[in-house]
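Supplementary Methods. Inverse-folding protocol.

Structures were first reduced to a discrete structure-token string of length 345. This string, shown here, constituted the complete conditioning input.
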């Protein structure tokens, strides 16, 4: 594993929202949990389980229609497979055994997040245009926030945990939501097709992947109304965002051209570009616990890609089911999970 000392002096000089997610900084809650990679295959309604030590699929199981993401719970004790078609449900997985439990009927669970205090789960009901706040264990809805946009899909939380920024891919909008007030307090139309959202280590801006604009939008984290402060071109079909384990770089998957861009948080510029030989469709995933690898699903290629984060080279392609989407490598460093596939604090 990478030593914690690999954090740069510049990174250590500033408070970081990712200060507790460095290599080896595991919560006691994941003690004894074997490292596994969980891949929801949206077109054949299965989850592939990979042993990252051998790069082999060791188990595959059926779930409800169109599994979108595999999401760690806030307390790191359960994984949930979000299936938003047919018998809509969240299927729990015991990470100690990698075995699924009984599906929990859930309305339109495209994605799943958790409030920073762990009080609520947030089911992203994309088709219903709502965020359904649930009991984080039973997933029973406690209250809902209707959203004034189409295709709400991804989000991230402010450094103080009081607000979130959500992306709406079908209407090209970004929303700021006040968690205490339970309401949308700001909205901006950016156009394009906004996807994944990640907060910068210093908590000052959000990066928002835009699949149609082919880059990341930089949005101020201050104030009620979201405000554009920049744009960084990255590649065709910009989709997923993953901070490096030392919180100095942001790995950006470009699904439309088979590349990964590496952005420097310090300069907000792309410093490297990794290319999948022969092309590919890198989508969602996770950084490995030691920070040396980036695992991404190949959405239209029916494989999982493994990149070396030091050299940028593609080291493995692992055959999985059809239409792999929100891949999760678990366990991860961090005190708790905020949801999606790789969002810890």
């Amino acid at each position: 594993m990478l030593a914690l000392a690999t954090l740069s002096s510049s990174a250590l000089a500033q408070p970081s929202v990712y200060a507790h997610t460095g290599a080896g900084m595991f919560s006691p809650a994941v003690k004894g949990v074997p490292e596994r990679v969980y891949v929801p295959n949206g077109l054949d309604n299965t989850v592939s389980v990979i042993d990252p030590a051998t790069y082999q699929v060791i188990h595959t199981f059926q779930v409800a229609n169109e599994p979108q993401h595999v999401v760690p719970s806030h307390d790191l004790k359960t994984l949930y497979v979000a299936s938003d078609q047919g018998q809509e449900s969240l299927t729990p997985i015991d990470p100690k055994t990698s075995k699924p439990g009984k599906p929990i009927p859930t309305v339109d669970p495209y994605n799943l997040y958790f409030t920073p205090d762990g009080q609520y789960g947030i089911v992203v009901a994309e088709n219903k245009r709502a965020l359904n706040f649930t009991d984080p264990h039973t997933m029973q809805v406690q209250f809902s926030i209707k959203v004034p946009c189409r295709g709400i899909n991804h989000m991230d939380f402010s450094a103080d945990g009081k607000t979130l920024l959500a992306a709406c891919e079908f209407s090209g909008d970004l929303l700021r939501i006040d968690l205490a007030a339970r309401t949308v307090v700001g909205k901006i139309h950016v156009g394009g097709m906004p996807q994944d959202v990640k907060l910068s280590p210093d908590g000052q801006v959000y990066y928002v992947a835009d699949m149609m604009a082919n880059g990341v939008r930089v949005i101020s984290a201050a104030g009620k109304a979201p405000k554009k402060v920049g744009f960084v071109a990255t590649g065709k079909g910009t989709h997923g965002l993953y901070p490096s384990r030392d919180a100095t770089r942001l790995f950006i998957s470009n699904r439309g051209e088979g590349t990964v861009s590496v952005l420097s948080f310090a300069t907000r510029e792309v410093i490297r570009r990794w290319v999948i030989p022969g092309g590919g469709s890198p989508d969602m995933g996770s950084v490995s616990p030691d920070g040396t690898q980036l695992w991404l699903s190949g959405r239209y290629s029916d494989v999982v890609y493994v990149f070396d984060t030091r050299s940028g080279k593609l080291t493995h392609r692992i055959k999985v089911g059809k239409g792999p989407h929100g891949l999760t490598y678990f366990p991860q460093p961090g005190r708790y999970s905020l949801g999606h596939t790789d969002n810890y604090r």
